[in-house]
């Protein structure tokens, strides 16, 4: 169907993970947006996860950057663009092409990416453009290229429906790609014989319905899959016919056979069970994600997986194959278009002279690098060392998300000239910019993205660009024009860029590359506007479908490659000073550095503050209680996080979410703790393998605050989250201020107002509230121990009458709903527990029927099930 | 034949005693009742609404003449008792003697008059009975009437508020640095002061009176303070406390201290003579609040009938209303070593609460403005309950003490099993 099907509904694509769900957008006249799943989109068939469902809550203009800024002062486009162009040109002239760099993002649309890459690699003449996809997908790209000759995802989502065994490795699919996970659960309902295996050091929500969970030692995936390869060889399951098209088989097997499986920490029985299942099930899909990629041996991990599929010929056929799921809406588009410093465009290689010449000719490019550029970690190292003197950062927040983030922040701060294009100035990175350029946001953008199964979908604007915001492609082309490259950047629309890109892919196709969408090079503007989700390739030779079943690969000899890979431990070594392994990752309802999701009260209610998962024994040994704050130290940085004591995590490991930033929890910038160690092949950081020490944070006081307006916290620890009524804040500090009333006045910026107070100085208790015209404006609760109040009840009070707010409790007739578990229907933990206890609802379905919880996106269903299990356990114990 | 019971004093305690006797032992006693005031029993606590005009005197009478007549009680109202002769078991009144088998001394208390120069001038009154009340009511009929009240305790403030309600310009002169210092702490006292000032009453705390000045007509003209300030007034009400009226008893040879000393059965040192009410001293304690007086009345009714009963002086709380301001205090709310205070303050709603805690037990409470939970606090004080588990929400009262546990689990809840 086309955009025109319904006049008031615009078809677009969700801006979060790489599943690439289709959405139907319906703006109202007040700038709000109704968001629903697109039942006709093949990625999601109407389903959305909690984040996608809450997109409408993220489009308000609060905090939007609406005009260019130069050195913090509002400016206009001409001055800002002139300054950017002149400074980049001058820097180029003085210090050469490698003194400038672009750091871009999987949030960019393909058309934005294309012009950025074209400007850097074809006109500035440097390959110093890298994307934040480096942090999530680079090892897959490198692994794919080694195995297949190109960065090709062989299969499609339909394989998940057809597989008899799905292996999730390094992927908490239930939380990070919920719509795919729900798709698997739906299949299992129809075909209960479909098996699910989860390989993860943590027992994640994805383990909920798994037939088998292998809690392998962090980073030991290569050994696990080598063991599998050896088992495949031992059982004679190598597909001899397919192996004709594969090189490196013997060597890979020989290497695998030498592997010491004990490093996985898994029992022989567990290993045997997994190997038996894998070997016995032809239709097997191995899904992998950041747990594989974010590693100093990420590329080897990818190849350890592809080795098994190549050896058995289980690739490119229905229901089988290695399957990388990506973290960003257009990580794939960025990979295709050349957003990485080691790619040219359309899967062409910088270091290949023929490829370079072809692209140079096509672009009529004056300057082209013949070597790969700096990958993210090295790029910011060069920024820190001063060799990169002008840096343009688009739609990403490296001051938070890069490993060793404090150093990266310092590097950006110290850089001569930093341009940041973003939708807000309130990010750790944007605050360091010399020039801030206001970009259009997701709901206002127009272009294409590619999802994890090679589906190119349109993002369409549903809202007008606010203020003087401009799409990124326009910003880039206008700078290019001002730098004197006008002829090559004279685009009037994304469609025009897309056509050029499609035409270039035809050249790549000519070189035998997989990415060829030349069939779309003559797309009219209206056809582009109406473009339906389309799986690449789109060429005379091939339309969509799967790759490699025919044994034809994109390597020079046309064969698939098996790699002899061996297990290597994470680079950072656990030692006496740093006895813990620090794993990092996502939570269910937040996205990246929260610039969008933190605007949604619903999404912020699931986990309203940053935390550290640690094993009960580790907590007990260190005297860390269930509500304590924990100080986490690594050789690179420190953080303060709330303890979450759980046996889901292996003893000796700790896990922290990556989302919180200087804007909402400055003590919890977790990437400041991560070592800047990278995979030598992919350049991807080892974000899940740092080492750490933990100890209780010695808080002299703890605080909890609610407020209608943003707060100005300055304490050692604070974390703010959006609520329907304003904000909620957790606080703690090492030293107790003398006058809490004064502190409250500063925190809430209420210098004059009369305060309602409750003080119990002997116990260090202070409670202070401000009311205006009978309505609660803000309240602060201070205690020497973690504050015991009904947070979720209190959080909705600001703006209403709340004379009893300082009690910190709801009156008996208004129960506290508890932390939100079901974001879609805003159902709290306590509400669900009460229903379990008082109404005897003992299944997820019964809860859903009674409370709606879990009946939309389904991503909270594992947690609802856990609550029921816990209630059952309690019953049994009684 | 009925026993002859004579009662001296027809105040509220006597009224309650009579209620018990009539109900529990009708006809058992032949009762004679003396009262110096020329009337029977009325609710003295309700004189304030009479003063302010909210009630008429008739509405506060608890036992009227018809009631005494109905129950065969001989009333000798407006008659002072001259003496008691325990040897002959007679009470000598102004109008003759009465023989008793049992005698109850319920002479009440006498307002304390500070012996300032001029304290006996016309226009200087206490606030004790209907006559005082009527004088204050009459004052308001004068244009530009002014009054000074010495004493910022309950009685003085009621007098001030009542007169102010009738249009008299009133100044309260109080020696302590805040009002009602025996019932309220400083912040609560100051809230009360603000509320009174909002009603147009001038309040001077920490003010020492020096002399009461006379005018040309020989009546009170002004009060002069120690700092020389003169406060002009047409009436000066002295409300600085009461003393048990013990002179009759002590002249009779009954043992007295600050009051008429009684045992647990309300017996005095002289056989056949009992004492009741504000004139009593029991175990070193005097009584100014109505609740223990009613307890005494109940015990004495039994004692008179020869039944075993024993008076226990229970912990009391004060719940007061001063011209629309709710006040409550209970227990001992002084600061001290080992004592913590929990203080709640809401100036917008004019609510103030202070709880005093010693060893995780509530020992005192002061509340201004929202006294609904006073009884609950009082019980906690009386029972010596351990409040450590309730401490954070204690001051918010029983409505916030339900069983729902508030875990300090911050923003997180560990739910995945």
From TrEMBL, chain A:
Keyword DNA-binding assigned: no
UniProt keywords, alphabetically: 4Fe-4S, Iron, Iron-sulfur, Metal-binding, Molybdenum, Nitrate assimilation, Oxidoreductase
Cofactor needs: Mo-bis(molybdopterin guanine dinucleotide); [4Fe-4S] cluster
InterPro entries assigned to the protein according to its UniProt record, in alphabetical order: Asp_de-COase-like_dom_sf, BFD-like_2Fe2S-bd_dom, BFD-like_2Fe2S-bd_dom_sf, CT_Nitrate-R-NapA-like, MoPterin_dinucl-bd_dom, Mopterin_OxRdtase, Mopterin_OxRdtase_4Fe-4S_dom, Mopterin_OxRdtase_prok_CS
Biological process annotations from GO: cellular respiration; nitrate assimilation
GO cellular component, one term: membrane
Superkingdom of source: Bacteria
Keyword Lipid metabolism annotated: no
Gene3D superfamilies, A to Z: 2.40.40.20, 3.40.50.740, ADC-like domains, BFD-like [2Fe-2S]-binding domain, Dimethylsulfoxide Reductase, domain 2
GO molecular function: 4 iron, 4 sulfur cluster binding; metal ion binding; molybdopterin cofactor binding; oxidoreductase activity
Domain 4Fe-4S Mo/W bis-MGD-type span(s) in chain numbering: 7-63
Family, similarity comment: Belongs to the prokaryotic molybdopterin-containing oxidoreductase family. NasA/NapA/NarB subfamily.
Name assigned to this protein: Assimilatory nitrate reductase (NADH) alpha subunit apoprotein
UniProtKB/TrEMBL annotation, chain B:
Cofactor(s) demanded: FAD
One Pfam family of this chain: Rubredoxin_C
Residue ranges crossing the lipid bilayer per the database entry: none
Domain of life, per lineage: Bacteria
Keyword set, alphabetical order: FAD, Flavoprotein
InterPro entries in the record: FAD-bd_OxRdtase (IPR050260), FAD/NAD-bd_sf (IPR036188), FAD/NAD-binding_dom (IPR023753), FAD/NAD-linked_Rdtase_dimer_sf (IPR016156), Rubredoxin_C (IPR041575)
Domain spans labelled FAD/NAD(P)-binding: 4-280
Family: Belongs to the FAD-dependent oxidoreductase family.
Name of this chain's protein: Pyridine nucleotide-disulphide oxidoreductase
Species this chain originates from: Celeribacter neptunius
């Amino acid at each position: 169907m086309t955009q025109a099907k319904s006049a008031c509904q615009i078809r677009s694509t969700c801006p979060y993970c790489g599943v690439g769900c289709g959405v139907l957008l319906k703006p109202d006249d007040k700038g709000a947006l109704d968001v629903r799943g697109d039942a006709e989109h093949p990625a999601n068939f109407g389903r959305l996860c909690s984040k996608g469902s809450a997109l409408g809550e993220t489009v308000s203009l609060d905090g939007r950057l609406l005009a260019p800024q130069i050195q913090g002062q509002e400016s206009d486009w001409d001055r800002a663009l002139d300054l950017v162009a002149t400074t980049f040109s001058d820097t180029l002239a003085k210090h050469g092409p490698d003194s400038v760099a672009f750091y871009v993002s999987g949030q960019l649309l393909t058309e934005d990416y294309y012009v950025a890459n074209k400007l850097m690699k074809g006109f500035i003449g440097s390959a110093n453009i890298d994307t934040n996809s480096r942090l999530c997908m680079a090892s897959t790209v490198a692994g794919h290229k080694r195995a297949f000759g190109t960065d090709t995802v062989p299969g499609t989502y339909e394989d998940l429906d057809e597989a008899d065994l799905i292996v999730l490795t390094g992927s908490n699919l239930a939380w990070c790609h919920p719509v795919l996970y729900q798709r698997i659960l739906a299949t299992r309902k129809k075909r209960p014989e479909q098996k699910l295996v989860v390989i993860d050091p943590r027992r994640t929500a994805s383990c909920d319905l798994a037939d088998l969970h292998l809690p392998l030692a962090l980073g030991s995936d290569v050994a696990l899959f080598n063991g599998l390869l050896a088992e495949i060889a031992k059982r004679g399951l190598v597909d001899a016919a397919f192996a004709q098209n594969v090189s490196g088989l013997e060597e890979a097997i020989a290497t695998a056979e030498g592997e010491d499986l004990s490093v996985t920490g898994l029992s022989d029985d567990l290993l045997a069970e997994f190997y038996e299942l894998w070997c016995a099930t032809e239709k097997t899909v191995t899904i992998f994600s950041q747990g594989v990629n974010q590693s100093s041996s990420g590329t080897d991990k990818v190849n350890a997986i592809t080795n098994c599929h190549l050896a058995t010929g289980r690739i490119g056929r229905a229901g089988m194959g290695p399957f990388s799921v990506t973290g960003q809406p257009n990580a794939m588009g960025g990979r295709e278009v050349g957003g990485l410093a080691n790619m040219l465009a359309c899967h062409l290689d910088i270091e290949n002279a023929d490829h370079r010449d072809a692209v140079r000719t096509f672009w009529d490019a004056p300057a082209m690098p013949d070597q790969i550029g700096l990958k993210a970690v090295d790029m910011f190292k060069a920024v820190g060392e001063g060799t990169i003197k002008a840096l343009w950062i688009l739609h990403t927040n490296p001051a938070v998300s890069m490993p060793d983030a404090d150093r990266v922040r310092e590097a950006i701060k110290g850089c001569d000239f930093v341009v940041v294009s973003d939708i807000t100035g309130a990010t750790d990175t944007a605050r360091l910019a010399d020039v801030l350029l206001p970009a259009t946001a997701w709901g206002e953008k127009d272009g294409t993205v590619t999802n994890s199964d090679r589906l190119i979908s349109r993002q369409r604007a549903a809202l007008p660009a606010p203020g003087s915001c401009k799409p990124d492609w326009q910003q880039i082309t206008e700078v290019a024009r001002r730098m004197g490259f006008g002829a090559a950047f004279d685009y009037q629309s994304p469609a025009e860029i897309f056509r050029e890109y499609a035409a270039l892919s035809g050249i790549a196709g000519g070189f035998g590359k997989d990415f060829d969408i030349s069939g779309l090079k003559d797309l009219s503007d209206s056809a582009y506007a109406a473009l339906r989700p389309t799986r690449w390739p789109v060429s005379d030779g091939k339309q969509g479908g799967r790759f490699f079943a025919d044994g034809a690969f994109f390597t020079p000899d046309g064969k698939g490659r098996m790699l002899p890979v061996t297990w290597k431990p994470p680079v950072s070594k656990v030692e006496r000073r740093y006895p813990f392994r620090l794993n990092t990752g996502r939570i269910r309802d937040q996205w990246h550095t929260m610039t969008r999701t933190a605007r949604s009260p619903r999404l912020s209610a699931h986990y309203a503050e940053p935390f550290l998962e640690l094993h009960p024994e580790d907590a007990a040994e260190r005297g860390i209680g269930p509500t304590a704050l924990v100080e986490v130290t690594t050789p690179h940085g420190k953080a303060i996080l709330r303890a979450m004591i759980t046996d889901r995590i292996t003893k000796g490991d700790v896990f922290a979410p990556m989302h919180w930033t200087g804007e909402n929890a400055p003590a919890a910038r977790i990437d400041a703790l991560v070592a800047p160690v990278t995979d030598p092949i992919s350049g991807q950081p080892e974000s899940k393998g740092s080492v750490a020490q933990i100890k209780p944070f010695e808080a002299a006081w703890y605080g909890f605050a609610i407020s209608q307006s943003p707060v100005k916290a300055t304490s050692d620890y604070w974390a703010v989250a959006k609520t329907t009524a304003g904000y909620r804040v957790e606080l703690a500090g090492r030293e107790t201020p003398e006058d809490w009333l004064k502190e409250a006045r500063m925190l809430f910026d209420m210098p004059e107002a009369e305060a309602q107070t409750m003080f119990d100085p002997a116990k260090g208790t202070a409670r202070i509230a401000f009311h205006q015209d009978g309505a609660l404006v803000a309240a602060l609760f201070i205690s020497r121990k973690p504050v015991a109040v009904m947070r979720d009840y209190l959080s909705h009070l600001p703006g209403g009458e709340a004379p009893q707010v300082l009690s910190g409790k709801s009156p008996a007739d208004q129960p506290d709903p508890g932390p939100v578990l079901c974001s879609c229907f805003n159902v709290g933990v306590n509400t669900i527990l009460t229903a379990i206890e008082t109404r005897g609802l003992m299944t997820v379905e019964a809860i859903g029927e009674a409370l709606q919880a879990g009946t939309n996106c389904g991503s909270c269903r594992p947690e609802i099930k856990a609550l029921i299990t816990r209630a059952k356990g309690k019953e049994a114990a009684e | 034949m009925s026993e002859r019971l004579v009662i001296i004093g027809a105040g509220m305690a006597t009224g309650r005693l009579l209620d018990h006797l009539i109900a529990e032992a009708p006809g058992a006693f032949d009762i004679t009742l003396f009262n110096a005031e020329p009337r029977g029993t009325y609710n003295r606590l309700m004189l304030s609404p009479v003063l302010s005009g909210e009630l008429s005197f008739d509405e506060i009478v608890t036992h009227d003449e018809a009631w005494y007549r109905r129950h065969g009680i001989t009333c000798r109202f407006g008659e002072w008792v001259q003496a008691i002769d325990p040897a002959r078991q007679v009470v000598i009144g102004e109008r003759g003697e009465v023989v008793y088998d049992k005698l109850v001394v319920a002479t009440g208390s006498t307002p304390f008059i500070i012996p300032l120069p001029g304290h006996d001038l016309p226009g200087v009154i206490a606030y004790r009975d209907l006559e005082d009340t009527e004088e204050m009511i009459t004052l308001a009929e004068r244009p530009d009437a002014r009054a000074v009240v010495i004493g910022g305790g309950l009685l003085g403030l009621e007098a001030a508020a009542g007169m102010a309600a009738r249009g008299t310009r009133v100044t309260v002169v109080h020696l302590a640095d805040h009002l009602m210092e025996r019932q309220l702490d400083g912040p609560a006292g100051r809230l009360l002061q603000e509320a009174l000032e909002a009603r147009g009453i001038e309040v001077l705390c920490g003010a020492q009176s020096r002399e009461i000045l006379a005018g040309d007509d020989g009546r009170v003209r002004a009060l002069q303070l120690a700092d020389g300030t003169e406060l002009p007034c047409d009436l000066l009400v002295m409300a600085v406390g009461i003393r048990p009226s013990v002179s009759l008893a002590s002249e009779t040879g009954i043992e007295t201290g600050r009051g008429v000393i009684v045992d647990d059965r309300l017996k005095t040192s002289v056989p056949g003579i009992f004492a009741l009410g504000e004139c009593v001293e029991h175990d070193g304690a005097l009584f100014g609040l109505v609740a223990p007086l009613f307890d005494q009345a109940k015990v004495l009714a039994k004692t008179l009938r020869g039944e075993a009963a024993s008076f226990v002086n229970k912990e009391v709380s004060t719940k007061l209303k001063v011209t629309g301001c709710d006040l409550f205090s209970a227990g001992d709310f002084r600061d001290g070593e080992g004592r913590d205070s929990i203080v709640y303050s809401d100036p917008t709603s004019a609510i103030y609460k202070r709880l005093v805690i010693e060893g995780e037990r509530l020992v005192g409470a002061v509340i201004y403005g929202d006294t609904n939970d006073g009884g609950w606090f009082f019980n906690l004080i009386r029972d010596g309950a351990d409040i450590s588990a309730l401490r954070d929400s204690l001051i918010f009262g029983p409505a916030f003490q339900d069983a729902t546990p508030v875990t300090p689990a911050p923003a997180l809840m560990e739910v995945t099993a």
